[in-house]
């Protein structure tokens, strides 16, 4: 009887595999790619084959999704997605939340923000949402003040007080880790920090508060949110196995949303 049960189970798994749905999910390098690889392992026995596709910047994954080159992406927070849809007309929708990655301040030259020199150079991302996020972090850290009413997307033009006369260098987010040698400090997204060998817990000289509105999301084309594979993708991502992987691997530098 045990042998027959085993045979039936094996046949069921084989049948499920033969009917497996295949999707491509766009991610950015670092933790988003690493986590999605784990999600793929959980999803496969459930009948969902995930091809993890890495993109080196923050713009192409949404364009690829809008064009139908991929079925979903997992790399961005909601404010960034909202801005992309507004500016580029993408018809996309959030179907689930994933992780929060606090932005950090990094430097090759100083070990404390107290040591930032007068007129020092500070690198921030050049896209509106992550650039605005960096300025909000610096405001929380007491380095500057921003005009009221700027919301989540302030710019350097909204700075009303800058006691250290910080000079801001707006660069592509992926380039910031490689630019540390030319800057006094920089605000770097966790995925690019990790991909560059930086440890947010030990290498950052300051960190964004964990309580922030920048939870990352899984996104699909509008109209696809009720597809069966979407439910499987979210279930696999929100599984105890993936949560355990994140907690063990990132040791608090990446926080789960579930």
From TrEMBL:
Q: Give the subcellular location.
A: Membrane
SUPFAM superfamilies in the record, alphabetically? Answer: Periplasmic binding protein-like II
Keyword terms of this UniProt record: Lipoprotein, Membrane, Palmitate, Signal
Q: Name one GO cellular component term.
A: membrane
Q: Which residues form the signal peptide?
A: 1-20
Chief subcellular location: membrane
Membrane topology, as annotated, equals:
Lipid-anchor
* UniProt xrefs under CDD domains: PBP2_lipoprotein_IlpA_like
- Note whether Signal occurs among the keywords: yes
Keyword Lipoprotein annotated: yes
* PANTHER family on file: D-METHIONINE-BINDING LIPOPROTEIN METQ, D-METHIONINE-BINDING LIPOPROTEIN METQ-RELATED
Which protein family is it in?
A: Belongs to the NlpA lipoprotein family.
Name of this protein: Metal ABC transporter substrate-binding protein
